Amino acid sequence: AEVAQGEAPRRIFDSYIDGDPSAFVADVEGLLNVTISAVGILNRDDLLRLLGPVGPVEILLDSDVRNTTPDGATLTVAKIGKATIDTFSLVSILLAREIDQSESARFNHHKSAWTAIANTVGLGLRLQSLQTDPLGTPLDFASFMNRLFNGPIQFWQFPENQRASHPLRQGNHTQLKGA
Q1: b vs e for 17-36, b when ≥16 Cβ sit within 10 Å of the residue's Cβ?
Q2: Is 70 exceeded by the pLDDT of residue 168?
Q3: Alpha carbons 29 and 46: distance in angstroms, whole number
Q4: Which of 21, 31, 29, 36 lies closest to 138, judged by CA?
Q5: Which residue has the higher pLDDT, 59 or 50?
Q6: CA distance 101 to 2
Q7: How far is Cα 166 from Cα 169, in angstroms, rounded to an integer?
């Protein structure tokens, strides 16, 4: 998250307090310069319901995905490489977290999962006819996801390669903790 000069770096998630996402949303909106109109705090069952229409996806992981269970054991959720996985495995990848693992260490797993979803949805799943105004703002997160999967999806991102030798970048370094 953005922090003031002299303030210790913190994760964006640290602004999510007691089930109220408002500070978290404000941080994300500020960092990305976007407005978020639909917010969902989702558990495993919610994610299974929302991602269920996508069906199996082909995913490419650059490292094993591990999760720490409540009793402290670490389990492998998915192995490095290319595989076709079901919705339960996809959700397990999105929710996986090792103790003391930074958010940035999880980023590639999340990016791989959302890329797999986007590739599967492609030009749209044509799930069911929408009963809402297609130009209106979705009223809840489920409506948002339904609309998202009914239309075309592209997932892209510009890579950031900071070059200290570039004259405009000297002395202008940003420290980010978490992603």
Answers
A1: eeeeeeebeebbeeeeeeee
A2: no
A3: 23
A4: 36
A5: 59
A6: 20
A7: 5
